[in-house]
Specification:
Layout lengths: L4 E2 L12 E3 L1 H14 L2 E5 L9 E5 L9 E8 L8 E7 H7 L2 E9 L13 E9 L5
Length: 134
């Protein structure tokens, strides 16, 4: 997707972004930042929310060694820093390691745990296969 905001590379030894945000996702995240303060994503691994990207106030979802930081976004738009981390469980990453993830927004209600739920919108992942040599 040409107009996406690419995350900074966070995995050691890699030189490519694994995660991006569509302009609609950036716009909604900036609005949510004003309401909730700093934010973070954790890619849900299934169960109740399928495989939805869950957006939380930063620190509300506790990450640990079982999680991988896939990317770091800057939502500042040239203003004060607004870092947003994108996390995924290490186990899920082993299945998704060959994909590039783009966070987008669609109308509808997602999880009640993700901060966009009251907006009548939900974040979703659009994935494409990465095309680097194995």
């Amino acid at each position: 997707m040409p107009d996406t905001l690419k995350a900074a590379v966070t995995l050691p030894g890699e030189e490519f972004s694994r995660v991006a945000l569509t302009p609609a996702a950036v716009q909604l995240l900036r609005k949510l930042w004003l309401q909730h303060g700093p934010l973070m994503f954790h890619q849900s691994g299934g169960c109740c929310d399928g495989s939805s990207p869950m957006c939380y106030p930063a620190g509300d979802f506790i990450t640990a060694e079982a999680d991988v930081l896939l990317g770091l976004f800057d939502l500042s738009d040239g203003l004060e820093p607004r870092p947003l981390e994108f996390w995924m469980s290490r186990e899920q990453f082993s299945y998704w390691s060959h994909t590039h993830l783009t966070v987008d927004v669609v109308a509808g209600r997602g999880s009640g745990f993700s901060v966009e739920a009251p907006e009548g919108k939900r974040f979703l992942i659009r994935s494409t296969l990465m095309d680097w040599p194995a």
